Automatic annotation (TrEMBL), chains A, B, C, D:
Pathway: Cofactor biosynthesis; 5,6,7,8-tetrahydromethanopterin biosynthesis. Homotetramer. This is Dihydroneopterin aldolase. Residues 4-109 form the Dihydroneopterin aldolase MtpD C-terminal domain. InterPro entries: DHN_aldolase_MptD, MptD_sf, MtpD_C. The lineage of its organism: Archaea, Methanobacteriati, Methanobacteriota, Stenosarchaea group, Methanomicrobia. Belongs to the archaeal dihydroneopterin aldolase family. It is an enzyme of class 4 (lyase). It holds the Pfam family DHNA. The keyword Chaperone does not apply. GO terms for biological process: tetrahydromethanopterin biosynthetic process. It comes from the Archaea.
Length: 114, 114, 114, 114
């Protein structure tokens, strides 16, 4: 079957979430640096092709609970809540990453023609 | 618009390529370890949901040309050629990653109903 | 103070453990691919300068316990046990990474002149 | 030989540079996000144990030259200039990462007793 603009919009959205997750999971962070890390992650993804918007939220409560005695921890996939909109030609797709049954799930929220 | 099985197959395919790229780019390698790295990359992606098959090829010529005086280099995106098939419900999507105009491009090759 | 050969041996050992950890944490794995991943990690570090030997062990019990319903998980720092020997000029340093009080600790085991 | 406070200071310094490099190389960036990425990298390392100070500089000229037609590129090791000071007990070690003969070299600049 021919590859459509809808297909490409969704494919690009998947790429962005996979990239974000595997680039940044493991990054050291503390409660003092969580703002800066959220911003850097969002910006690093937003420079990639077809990204219309993205918000990245890291769960402060989970960061707090997992701090070691040294006062820091690492970014885990379960701490992330991401919402992104990708636009490819005349299709716009909204995707998310969030905790579902203890697992960081990536999912398509909506696809629309613009 | 409702999210279809075709959409999800393509979304999962995008996630896998984004993950592969950002997990493994930067890995130290030499001509002696390229086989083992190709295998480990392919296997690490193949354990993820909905992956039907995957092959990973690292360009030996490019590895050779970029070896430092210490006899090793790092995996770069431009060295990778990946072909993967993702199956989600009754849709199968074939995707690729390869060098195009000097840039490691990810693309959809085919989508079919099974 | 002048930088000695002992200093450089230890510095290189630290680099290797930091690199290993942050390159590979987050890698998808299952009980079927753990052997291949251990080998690829050990090889990728062994190609770097001054590495005399390295062994990488991933705790199968911890992998098993953290498998999702999809039958896979991600490499976590706590799953790793690494032993490495770095040789720089006439100094040899043995270092380790292993779980200590719930935390993946990196430490110097021994330094000797050869 | 017994492991000294000097040894541990140097070991910790090596860990930090290895971690920084392998966590962040591959991160997508553009000329508009380079400030934010520098800051996030410096902060993520500074939360780790024994880090007294760290500065991270990304070469804007190299970023500019490697921009794809999509207006972004990825962080490469050769773009990085890092200076860090690690303090462990009564020893302070200054280390650097910078381009040397086309290769991103990590080195000890100074060790002192405080």
């Amino acid at each position: 079957m021919a590859v459509t603009s809808r297909d490409n919009a969704i494919f690009e959205a998947g790429i962005k979430l996979g990239a974000l997750y595997h680039q940044f999971v493991g990054t050291p962070l503390s409660l003092h640096t969580v703002d800066s890390l959220e911003k850097a992650i969002a910006q690093s993804i937003s420079v990639q092709p077809y990204v219309k918007s993205i918000t990245v939220h890291i769960d402060r409560e989970m960061v707090k609970e997992s701090l070691t005695s040294f006062g820091y921890t690492e970014l885990k996939g379960t701490m992330l809540k991401v919402d992104a909109t990708i636009k490819y030609e005349n299709h716009e797709v909204s995707v998310g990453l969030s905790l579902k049954d203890g697992y960081p799930l990536m999912y398509i929220k909506d696809v629309k023609e613009t």
